[in-house]
Amino acid sequence: MTIWQQETLARQLWTTGKSPIPIYDMHGHMGDSQAIYHKRCQAEEMVKHLKRIGVTRLVFSHMDALAGIMRNAEVLEICKRYPDILRMYIAINPHHPEYIKEDLAAFKKFQPYAVGLKFLPAYHKVAVTAPAYEYALKFADEHALPVLFHTWGNIPENNGKVMLETVQKYSRLKFFIAHCIYGEWDYAERCVKESNGNVWLELTAIPGVRGLVEKLVGQVGSERLLFGTDMPWFDEYQAVGGILAARISEEDRHNILYRNVENILGRNF
Amino acid sequence: MEEMFFFDANCRIGNGPFGVHPGVDGLLAEMDIFGIDKALVRCNDADQLSAQAFNREISRMVKSDLSGRLTGVWCILPEQCPELPPPEEFFAQMRTNRIGAITLFPKAHGFMASKLSLGKILGEAAERKIPVMLYNCYRNEEFVYNFLAEFPNLTAILNAGNKWGTDRTLRPLLEHYENVYLETSGYWVPEGIRDLAEIYGAERLIYGSGFPTFDYGSSMLQLKYSGLPDDAVRKIAGGNLQNLLKGCDL
Lengths: 269, 250
Ligand SMILES: [Zn+2]
Hints:
By secondary structure, chain A is of the alpha/beta class.
């Protein structure tokens, strides 16, 4: 019997294409990117793709807002057009301190659509430990907000070393460590274990790579993992398929796809 | 629901210079877990092995698969150094060893892939419609473009991805070369398989997993729910590769 024929999530997804449980995609974007062609990178097409499999919420940061050529207020308007599915991170561009101050001062206005902040240190070429991020980090810490940090192993602005230093500095901020510091898995584990219980690892680019989800579950436990896809970069079925293919328990899959997020942000935030 | 026939075009087996990997039994067990019927296999860490060792190893492994579900890939070398048999004999040996396709690693094996070096064997391959596998096209576009310009009539199967989308570099090749096929492992673009099939035809796409780097579950679910009609999905999942291997003159 194949995994698709067993009485599991896999069977339901394989036969219907619809998830019987909620899926919170905690790492999305929107808009064209410089690197690759995206056919489906605007809200309408993205939402169509998300709804096919049954993603409950996508939390995204707009590429243009990250680039500093669009204000977060405009992204808020996009979210308002799709209130049942889209949520946003306030894009933080360290080269625009005036935008950061203005947007965070108005953070309440962004709620409930904005659930936290997004940092992209390697792309902005500013290390996460640099003073340019301090204001936003302190704000997030004060309000115990989630911050999705783009990370990648061996990239100086957001590698294991600077992430570990950062998680140890802020005890209330909710660290969502995107890509699990890809490749520096031991640092990712240390960030979870040597912090104040306020660190989760986000899985974008990992499901589908054979053995990695299992490895991370083994290192930090499925309670510390969040599902994400970088949508519109990666296909939802591809990523969910990677969670289904992993040799982990059904409980683990439930934790990764929705339970952990519901514990942090509440159901249907 | 009628089961879907899956033929994995991109699969590596056996230990290599860089470590221990699933062999024939490991792969077949994995295929059973996910419902993969057949696979086109090559060696792991291929570019660190001599072409001779690569071909010998893959023949040995394919031979040990008594189920007949595995078909091998051999690599080629310039004909001026008589390391491999001449085309006629090479292809005959492929047939007897259950080898269905060829590939090449010019960088690792230290040669220029041109008409001068490979004209005879690839001329024959084009005529006989023997599939030529081009792995790792991502960030290797210059080689692929030059190679296809040199050998425009080959039946070539290009790997489409390394997680990130490769449309800007691979779509022009699909448009210009009618015998070029795209193999989908690592092509994680949302509904991208459907977009390619709608433009170039489902006949031009071939399912590949990328095992053991990638798992089966992710690529299978992605293809099944690519948004294409069932008959197109079935072609991509296995029908197209099966037809190419059956249709070539080996
Ligand atoms: Zn991202």
